[in-house]
Request: fold
Amino acid sequence: MTAISEPPAESFRLSQLIYDSRYRSTTIQVVASILLLAAIYWLGRNIVSNLQDLGKDFNFGFLWQRSGYDINQRLIEYSNDSSHGRAALVGILNTLLVSVLGCITATFLGVFAGVLRLSKNWIVARLMTVYVEGFRNIPLLLWILLIFALMTEGTPQPRDFRGENPEASMILWDSVAVTNRGIFVPSPVWGDGAGLLALVFVLSLAGIWWFRRYAFARQEATGEILPIFWTSIGLLVIPTLVVYLGYSAMISKDQYPLIAAGGTEGASLVEYLEENRNPSICSVPDTAAVNLSTTLRGLEQRASIVTVSSVSEVQASLEAGDCVLAVMAPSAAETLIGSVDGVELATLSDTVDRGRPLQFERPQLAGFNFEGGAQLRNSLIALWFALSLYTGAFIAEIVRAGILAVSRGQTEAAFALGLRPNRTMNLVILPQAMRVIIPPLISQYLNLTKNSSLAIAVGYMDVRGTLGGITISQTGRELEGILLMGLFYLVTSLAISGVLNIYNNSVKLQER
Amino acid sequence: MSDIHSESSIAFVRTEMLEAKDPPSSQIGVVKWVRENLFSSWLNSILTILSIVFIYVVLKALIPWVFGGVWDAGSLGECRSVLNAFGQGGHGHGAACWAVIEDRWLQLLFGFYPPAEYWRPITFVVLMFVALLPILYSDYVSSKLMIFTAIFPFLAVWLIWGGSFWVPIMTAFGFIVGYVAFQVVSRVSFGGLGVAAGVLASVLWWLVAQGMIDDALNRTIGAARYDEALATAQAELAAAPELIEQAEARRDAIADDISVAVEGRDEVLEQIALIRSGESQGDLDVLQDQLLAMQDQLSAMRDTFTIAVRAATSAGAAQSDARQSASALAALPDQEAELPELRAARDEALAALPNALRGIGTGEDLPEGTSDEDEDALSAYLSLEADIVNTELAVDTTYRRLALTGLEPVESRNIGGFLLAIIIGMAGIILSLPLGILLALGRQSDLFIINKSSVAFIEVMRGVPLIVWLVTASLLLNYFLPPGTSFDLTLRVIIMVTLFSSAYIAEVIRGGLAALPTGQYEGADSLGLNYWQSMRLIILPQALKISIPGIVSSFIGLFKDTTLVAFIGLLDPIGLSNAIRASSEWNGIYWELFIFIGACFWIFCFSMSRYSQWLERKLHTGHR
Amino acid sequence: MKKSIFLGTLAVAGLAAGFVSAQTLDEVRARGNLSCGVSTGLAGFSMPDANGEWQGFDVAFCRAVAAAVLGDSTAVEFVPLTTQTRFTALASGEVDVLARNTTWTFSRDVDLRLEFVGVNYYDGQGFMVPRDLGVTSALELDGATVCIQTGTTTELNLADFFSSNNMGYEPVPVETNAEAQQQYLAGACDVYTTDASGLAATRATFEDPAGHVVLPEIVSKEPLGPLVRHGDSEWGDVARWTLNAMVAAEELGVTSANVAEMAAGTDNPEINRLLGTEGDLGGMLGLEADWAQNVIAQVGNYDEVFEGNIGASTPIGLSRGLNAQWTDGGLLYAPPFR
Reply:
């Protein structure tokens, strides 16, 4: 028993740090971290001393200063009196907007082109090959510039819509104008009763959800397949439509009086406008005000609406001279006329339709440009198109590869089971192809989001244009600006790849 | 019975075979192909018709525009008047104005690279393909060419930027130094330490030894050439005015000819305009032909004019070079004599300086309550220091020019156009390979800190768009370097692009590493190889080989992305197109430039991507 | 040691390194050329021609400084800079002087720590509209769509002008002048606004210049001038007095044609001082005595540069206007050479 030899007493030698593989990894890590820290320290010290040499400091105070520049494309309130921080926010939202729009259309385009590339139709397949190879092999920047130039040159300018025999005219029953400043489309306006409409719509959605659940349960239990699609459509449309028509019939005959500052009692709107060109309107945001401005534009006047939140604010605005015209319910108008001080108010002989619960304001030519409705600016469309077409070409290849990756045997087996072609596609092919398609697809979304930073080429004000462009130029805060911009892109990318990882884990083949 | 049967049946049976009928016309030839490939179902038929209509519309608009274009014109205005003469005016879009390409294509290819040195970038591109052969077609080309591939980067830098021939040789020698250090250290120690020692030795060589040897060579050769160079410079300076006068006279003579020719052309244009408006009679076709001939002649004259202008400019430049080198050479002995005195004065001033003030660079760092005398002493010392640096710089510059043995140096901001795109793209990929390999290994490593820092680097680089990195390079990189250093913008962009693409390359190589069967790793371990040996001898050669298609794709992406440098003021094709559009001759043109640039990019990228697909297929079958 | 490390590293790529010091003049001399920041392309002011030679009004100033410092107007490296990179390039020492039609403003001078050495072109922001729009005054532009170059002072002036006149507008930001021109001509914007000189230059290149009018309102002061780094007064003096020498030469009637003759000595002592035949003004600047002679002989006086690049006889066709000599009712007023 004593023969068991004691393990030799381990005496630690310094050379073990290098030669003993037990310690070596620790040594390497310690050395690496020291080098890393030294490099970070070196960079940091350089930044500090360079900033000092240039007499600059490192602070983000500029984000709260007045920006002084205007941005045309904005999703939130912004004017040149807003801060640089808000301008950055506008830019961030614009980046996200074009990225989301781009991802959606790129997916459609890519799936479309990818499927058609596999089509048996020779000419279509060749055409799609030309599309894919053309877009993949020419820099995106060139495509953006080309598409922007094409849209600028190829579409009419607003001036062409003017005159007796205009060179261009609006399409879709005079509701949409395609110009080289963008596409003007009708925008929805919520009137009285819109709340009820929304409530009914939400209830219909809930109904659809409940019905689908019921139909699935029924199919599981009995095998009977209920017509989910048509029932859903019916549920979606009919109740809302009935409420809309009913409510419209109730209120659309109502007329609202026009109250004008400095007008003659009983004068018509046209007479009033002769002395007050391009009047501004005070109103709570509703359809009556929109109808008034539509009328005004019909009379070749620009009409700006000063939005207020209540009738008493209308009074304040009229007194302050912010606006000269007001439109409201007859009862409110009477109280208003009695209570306003300092301004002569008169009721005009013309009246305005009260409007319907939901109306669409159509764009009209007024002044230099189309007004009313919503404008999809050319810069946005060009960028969106170029990004979608470019990324779509890459997605087409991914989709093609994904479909080719599912073996033919799968289809044949599904047919052997008696599944119809569309069910085969939905239940057998797509789920398998998706597993191959989704990961590279998401990395294409990532690329698209990053590529949206080329917006500057068409003057679309994304985060690179506002925070990383004008703000840096105007304030000279390049270090802070670029840092914030980089951080934004990094966070966005990490968020998207986070989604990718979650998805990957959920669809991973369960290996045995 | 049987006879009857046979007889009766024979009456109805043919004895000879029928000729095989042709298949129905819908089942053969073109018709069959069209039926099967174009009109197999109603959906397909609709798609086919739509496609044909689409192709027709596009070609109908495009073909006259492209092929009816004007090739000979000196400016957009001229181009438009020629088009008007052919009745294709109207906003200038009836046909293309390719004259801009004819006028500026060399600029779009080479940027402002000196025309006399165009052979250098051309050689560079040709040699680049030779150097790529053993990598891209490893099965068909002798692997001995790999030696040339290894030499090529140094040769390329020398070809493009010029300078004395020993600089690239010494730089390449740095790698040999590193390799020797690696071998020696890894013999006595383990691989990791060997790598560290190799890197350290190379860096030391480049930073210290190379500069010293270069200086010594410059001085020795320079001193030997001094007298001769001074005499040459003075002779050139004396001869220059006459040469300039001759060149300018020639240039002016051609300019006069051109203006005469333009007048003649304008007359023809006027006649055509009159005929078109119906104010006079005449044969339009004859005049139009005459106009074209005149434009052709004009364009030939303009070409000679360009050459004459270049000659005049280079005569002027030669004069200024001669003047500069004569004055620099004349000043050299004084400067050299002055240096020791300056150094002595500096040492004195430093000795006189209070300890607290040493090491201060600018007035702003002065401690509170410094006396006026001390401040004066400091500023005297600092100005001496600056004098020394500047004199040394002047002496060095003079010697460098004097000792120049090799190619004329070219400033990197003169490099532009597609040459710049190729250089940035190639440099980005080649330089990022080593870094990318290290990052990929780091990402696979079990060592926590190395793994996490590699992952962080890769994710940060990939998460932020290249354009932001380029803005960083142009606005911020100077902040990260020691105060007082500043790099050329092209170099800064190359550094940034290298870091950026190394993250992508790392991911590609990681894919290659992951694709190797585990058996390879285990096999290497079983042979008793250590980590670096197994990587170098077993894993990386295989992983790199299967990563080549991915690397080529990265290169295509990077090459396309080089267009973004236009945003930071580098004159790549797109930046140059902006500059061309700003010139008074071509103000207002864009389609032609964009289409030309797009076509060039397409040819390059498409052939690369075809290659990559071919390789992928080849590798694929190899694995099955 | 430090220097040789540096040169050693950079020799690898054959690229030059510079030291940012307070001694730009010596450094330029040691290097043998001037590095000058210019616009990436603006007709008349700075643009490369078919031979890659830079031409233009701003370019001429760079050449003048090179002629003054090095006696050679061709010893200039032109560094094209965008609106965004220009100040950083100057501050980091990448360029010695910036001549990129930059507006002299308080915050740039003080907060960005730059030093404007004078004004080489007095400009102001104007508006251009197509004639058939029927607009005669900028005050009629309520609701117009305006093309504008980003990152410049014009952007801020525009916002100020419209909000102070209580008008609305829609900005269409563009990156370069060429881009803006394309948008404007296609009618994607009603108005193009930039410096009046730029408007004139742009209008001159149109197919139909008469179809466009520049509105009478000038909404801002845009003194465009070259600038150098803050804190190097010697170098600032060189740049400033080079500009002044060109202006004074015009006033005194010295041109590139007669400078050689006048350098022999004239009756006018100021000309003699300027050309270095009397006194030692050059020496005071740290330059050769014949520095101004070189400038005028190789580049020309202010008038020659103006007329040669942007004047009435060029496609740009600008008249002198505010940029005439003070004796002709303009604002150019060079301090005495004494």
